[in-house]
Amino acid sequence: MQQWNAFYELINSPQKRVVILTHQNPDADAIGSSLGWKLYLQKKGHSATVIIPNECSANLRWMPDFAEVITYDQNVQSQAHSKQVIQDAEVICCLDFNALHRIKGLGELALASTATKVLIDHHLEPESFADFVFSDTTKAATAQYVFELIQQLGDASLVDLPMAQCLYAGIMTDTGSFRHGSTTPEVHLAVAELMKTGLQVNDVHRAIFDNNTLSRTRLLGYVLSEKLTVLPEYRTVYMTLSLEELKRFQSEMGDTEGIVNYGLSLENIVMSVLIIERRDEIKLSFRSVSDFSVRDLAHQYFSGGGHKNASGGRTNTSLKATTELLLSVLPEYQNELLSVKK
Ligand code: 5GP
Ligand code: MN
């Protein structure tokens, strides 16, 4: 209650310089919740700047005010600019992530700042770095949480079409277009309110999902036909992609997003893993259905974490060694995998 009153005072105080940060490889919830929150803060009379650690995929750049977003690692100027904006900030809002080390250089700048810090997130186990912590794993998306906070602040009437487009993009994608178990009545109620602004949900869906380049579509076809291995004894599917293959398909940032989900569409499959060779690390994406949690696997063996049904991790070895590591730990989870009801 005390926290809420102080937060209410902060939001309703005269103009503050606010910076909004979100996670590495920002997805639609990261960008959508950040821009929705920024547009709201501007309506409250604050100045707000969104900084993303690295580039996002092209299908998210249509969002209102995206042109104003600073991409930290774009060049020396953007790094210097980010540094200045963070140093000048009175308030730093961290959206859709819970640990400053996950945003590398930007996180260090934020940690060094004495600005009031606000965390709005829906991942498990938040780090304790913020003065105001809104961390709730029952929220399907950070964008849903942002909308509900705006409602609780008594400002639902300020939500307009551009804000609704940003927030809807985050909710739609983080719920897998309203099919994941995280899709609660509250999610649909939030969407119903957003639609009252004149939001055309089909436009948002098309902008995000029906804007693939031909090479991205061919990459998906290649992975599904050539690179997908089914392990029925573990009810698991895994796919691998090397740097060379990504280059061959002229893969751009975000092109591999969503590929891992195709593994779960197979009958009887409970877990899907995508292993990708990046320039500086091997990145893993884990997805599961029902009661099988991929979080423990990602955390224990791949220095990662995330949600029960969607986690990520990494190694500093090779694609081959990472795949072998995965195969070597699967027996540990076999009983659990076999007992899951799909
Ligand atoms: P993705 O496979 O899309 O990269 O990640 C899936 C989910 O796991 C996302 O919610 C993401 O935030 C989370 N995640 C990915 N990598 C990590 C990690 O290294 N640590 C933690 N705690 N979460 C991660
Ligand atoms: Mn999210």
TrEMBL record:
InterPro entries the record matches: DDH_dom, DHH_sf, DHHA1_dom, Oligoribo/pAp-PDE_c-di-AMP_PDE
Stored Gene3D superfamilies: 3.10.310.30, inorganic pyrophosphatase (n-terminal core) (3.90.1640.10)
Sequence ranges assigned to domain DDH in this UniProt record: 17-171
Positions of the DHHA1 domain: 249-317
Ribonucleoprotein as UniProt keyword: no
EC number, as in UniProt: 3.1.13.3, 3.1.3.7
GO molecular-function terms, A-Z: 3'(2'),5'-bisphosphate nucleotidase activity; nucleic acid binding
Organism: Runella defluvii
Keywords: Hydrolase
Official protein name in the record: Phosphoesterase RecJ-like protein
Domain of life of the native organism: Bacteria
Keyword field contains Heme: no
